[in-house]
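Dig into what follows:

_____
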Amino acid sequence: MSSKLSRRMVLRAAGVAVTLPALVSLLPRGARAGGGATKRFVSLFFPNGSTRRQDWMLGGSGTDYTMGTAHASLEPLRAKLSMFTNLNGDYGGAPDHSRGTASFLTGAPISDMGTPQVEISIDQAIADALQPATAIRSLHL
């Protein structure tokens, strides 16, 4: 028995190695490792408000709420969503619109040095708790 690898065997192995990752993407979602749906956290902040505020507002409270027209495409996912509105805070300093941008995920006031006075924001705490098995742990856009 020969211990040498033929050129054909090397090419065949390389072909298999290259195509295997692509085949995983063809599996149905439930067949992948972990089986459960990926959990995501999305937050929106409008420092200067929105042009049609009523489109973004939720009606009612608890699980018996109505979505604004901006959320209409999310209606099929409603049972899987937790939505919060009207989270207002005093972020300290001048009452300019953009001041909340630095603090809306932490709730911490901005110090005299212009830096938030907190160790971790809610989005990073969620990322730590979920420990996503993805190449990108947290993405800010």
